Amino acid sequence: MILTNREEQLLEEIYKWEESLQSVEATEMELLYEEWLEKGLNLIPASVRETYLHNIDEGLFQLTALIQGTEMQTQATKRIIETARVFKEDITDLSEMNSLQVDQLSYICEQQMAKLRLYALSQGALSGTGQSLLVGIDIPAVLCMNIQAVQQAAMSYGYHIQTPSELMLTLKVFHAATLPRHLQAQGWHQLKSELSQEFDPYFYEGVDQIVDKTWLQKIVVQIGKTLAIFAAKRKVYNRLPIVSMMVGGGMNYRMAKQVTDYAKRFYQYRYLLDKKNESH
Description:
Elements lengths: L4 H18 L5 H15 L3 H23 L2 H17 L14 H26 L4 H5 L1 H19 L7 H14 L6 H12 L20 H17 L9 H36 L3
């Protein structure tokens, strides 16, 4: 199918965004950090390290499947369809979303992404209060919110996420979006490669390994944030740890912004690619 002028324009914007990813280079600090992390991980026996990474992989996939089946995600699906009806009143299912214009879909997606960024900011600020329970659930909450963001981005462009293949793809988008900035172009090309392959939606045949040593940087950063919260907690104004709340909220928001922007770009690209290939 021939793309409209606006869709061609958006596709060109995505290509320029892709070029901007390729131009990002690691800073000296990031290179030193990666070298330090590599040395630290190499101290762990290979068998133990691979088992640990495999367990994280399994845990993330189970978490992704669990989120998909929650009431919160069900309500998100309803909100997306209800918002779509503002533009076309007879829409009743996500599969009918492709009847909308791409800017309408992008608007719906951005509405969902804005809410999740706000949730991430609030969660980070709450963890910044230093309450043990809130700090303890911060990393799981961050993972859940950002995986949920990718899933809602997929649904906003009309993709059902119930099948194993779609769930695995959302997890790979999440992984690519949370890589260090200078590695996100590599993650983008891997995602494009996924789209170029035909696959059975009910049986995933691709590479199912998600987590690698590079991705563990995010976990280390989140742990570092937790330590920073405890360090800043002593600076209290009006009985509230303002500094640590700013640290927690700011870092969570920054990560959510990175994930939501990346996920939105990917599903825009996928939608346009699918539409372009409909006549082939």
